[in-house]
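User: Can you help me understand a structure? I only have the sequence.
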Amino acid sequence: MPPQIIFGLSRFSVAALLVFGSGCLFPVFAQKCAVTPAQVKLGETLRITCPAEFTKVRLNDRESQLFLQPNGQRFGLFPISVLDKPGMFELTVFRGDDGSPQTLSVLIRKTIFPSQNVKLGPEIEALRSTPEEMALLNTFKKNVSENRVWQDPLAAPVSGCMTSPFGVKRLHNGKPTGEYHGGVDQRTPEGEPIRAVAAGTITFAKQFNVLGNAVGIDHGQGLESMYLHMSRLDVQPGADVKRGDILGYAGSTGRSTGPHLHWVLYVNGINVNPAQWTKLQSCPRPPKSS
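Assistant: Let's start by predicting it. Here is the structure, written out as tokens:
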């Protein structure tokens, strides 16, 4: 090729000519994976986007799958647990072939969760989950289906403000339980419709000892939601629902002290903060008495 033609080409075109002219068919610039956000609090969710050859991501001893999307890229969610340690960490993203993995840096910020005491009557405090209920919930959390039907942002299931946020350390009648609040509570009058936060398939809709009347939805690719303490259920297992469809009606069944909605988001089996996924307002604190 004459020099004057080469001088008229872009740098990328020249590089491509040199590569293809040498018989090499590899891309000139390696495609990179990306993670957002780069800084997270405990209980939040990472989103990883990669070229199609990358299939899974690992942090410490946990792995999450990356799913092929309609645009040809891979995408996956990675949950940061309330029990994880703060600090700077590296995510390792693995290829499905013999290619080298990539590493992505993530800062997990120190997160302070307050304590909250709940007063329970003896009968409600004595409620316990059965082995069959625990097995059903464990199977639900471990399920990771291939087909994604959810879209950002998620919709709040009710309009009420938050009476109890995610992550608070729970005390029952002044005694520590060793547990944290794995979802959020929203103020909800008796009988108010409870709606799906996103499209999905109903995994279960049944009465539990502790959870009361509850519904679990699989939204695909590791995202699931659960809605508790309803007075009445309006869906059946196996049914497909759309965002905003009615699942049941608010109540106070199971281990509950009054009408409200307790709902939970799981990412690959780990509780995550719903407030990162949808706009939720905290209830105003009552004024202090003088």
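Now, to help you interpret it: The helical segments are 3-6, 11-21, 122-125, 131-142. The longest strand covers residues 87-95. Let me know which part you'd like to focus on.
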